[in-house]
Amino acid sequence: MSKMEALKLSLIIISLLLTNLRSIASSPHNHRYNVGDHVPLFVNKVGPLNNPSETYQYYELPFCGPDPVVKKKESLGEVLSGDRLTTALYKLNFRENKVAETLCHKKLEGDDVAKFRDAVINDFYFQMYYDDLPFWGFVGKIEEDSWTLEKKSLKYFLFKHVQFDVLYNGNQIIEVHAIGDPNQVVDITEDVGVDVQFTYSVVWNTTSAAFDTRMDRYSRASSLPIHLKIHWFSFINSVITIMLLIGLLTLLFMRRLRNDLRTFSTGDEEDDKEVGWKYIHGDVFRYPRNKSLFCAVMGVGTQLLTLVCSLFVLVCLGILYPYNRGTLCTALVILYSLTSVVAGYTTASFHCQFAETGWERSVLLAGIMYAGPLFVISSILNVVAVSYGATAALPFGTIMVIVLLYAFLTIPLLVLGGVIGYLFRSEFQSPCATKRYPREIPPLPWYRDTPCQMFLGGFLPFSAIVLELQHLYASLWGYRIFTLPSILFIMFIILILITAILSVGLTYIQLSVEDHQWWWRSVFCGGSTAIFMFAYCIYFYTRSSMSGLLQFSFVFGYNACMCYAFFLMLGTVGFRSSLMFVRYIYRAVKSE
């Protein structure tokens, strides 16, 4: 082989290696592209602007589509979130400008025109994903044709041209927008067939924004100064509330309780009558009714607390962030399964403090206490979604995956936790011996009954979090992005502290009137904040623009599940804090 042939062969090998390295360095997986590279674009869904849960597959409207339509393989979380990504005819190659590119010619029949008109009337938007960046655009527009004092005429137009504005930095895509051209429209006011040429343009521009910050723009609207001021006002309001409660209870402990203990040590019978909680020392640690149910509440409440704290940890680690498609739903399903071992352990260990047998029933109740109502409500909502043909309807395969996950991961971990709790059981630590027969509870005025205490125990914590709850609901049932998870976590901690402090105070008041049935009441008073949260959900819905059976069902159905979870969590906090307090005061009495 001559030197010239060897040189040519070397050049060919080097060029092939450079081509391979270039194709490896530029791909949709690392979001780096070269000029002319294909960038994946998927259409997702359409739906009315005022009903975030009412979404339909993109090609439910007679848009131009490929033949055949190929669906993107999706994760469990994406399906649960209602995402249904499919291929599209749009070709947006990297840094290739296009002007009035023809998408397709389509004959819209009368039924197609009626579908588009209904979409325009209901302010339908479409959602697409380009290089994993979500963006939205409207289907059409409404204009006033002519009007008089007696009648106003409206005309409906369909956008037939879409302009894509894409910003890039180097070899990475930073931002994308889709804008319907208001000057290129089709009149769809009448149910008359029409020939439409759908077109699109692509405009590329450079930006100095970094790739790592490209998701920040989705949260800018929620980070406006007025919204930040509301967040901080809510935070300061909550801090002031908890400081007042701490001061109040400190006064209670330092004066009233100290006087109670001092009175006990004097032995003055007349003074002792003023301290009613000492007389029920033989009943205050009596096991509650429905022992298995009570233990299950403690187990599931502890599990859900662990789940919520784990979610906040994932947010702090950057694993969960806005528009990380389906990750939140996936995390919820997996974490619920993994934390079931906590529910099993807590339920069994708490039950075995009362009795060594029957813990299996308590663990079984823990397995269905939250999952049961959630499954029933989700099934009903799925039927409603199927009747509407909405993307919220879960495919049969997804339902089977969830069922199998519950059967082969959640239940075994629940049983495993129960067995561990049984093996490492301990006796209930009671400072006072329990009498054989319960003491009769004296008649009490109406304001000392459970409903009144629940109102007080729920209203004060709710008043401390109501402003932050508004932001949370706007994020769940709207398009606002919750941009300050750290503030949300702090508010959650404050909610737990206020619940614990109030539960202690209400339990002390209850014991002072010789009412020893505080176990269940501490759960109800602690969890009563959830009732106010659901009531605020009703207020939020009535003040919003949401409408229709589907949106109504999803808002109230899933909010009921969320508030029920908060009831179990806060009820557990209420009992645990009350138990610590009761043990403390009766241990102090015993030491005296």
TrEMBL record:
Specify the signal sequence span: 1-26
- Could you tell me where this protein is found in the cell? Endosome membrane; Golgi apparatus membrane
Q: Name one GO biological process term.
A: protein localization to membrane
UniProt keyword annotation of Signal present? yes
Q: What is its main location?
A: membrane
Q: Where are the transmembrane segments?
A: 232-254, 293-321, 333-351, 363-390, 396-424, 445-467, 487-511, 523-542, 554-575
Keyword Endoplasmic reticulum belongs to the record: no
Q: Which UniProt keywords apply?
A: Endosome, Golgi apparatus, Membrane, Signal, Transmembrane, Transmembrane helix
InterPro entries, A to Z: EMP70
Report membrane topology.
Answer: Multi-pass membrane protein
What protein name does the entry list?
Transmembrane 9 superfamily member
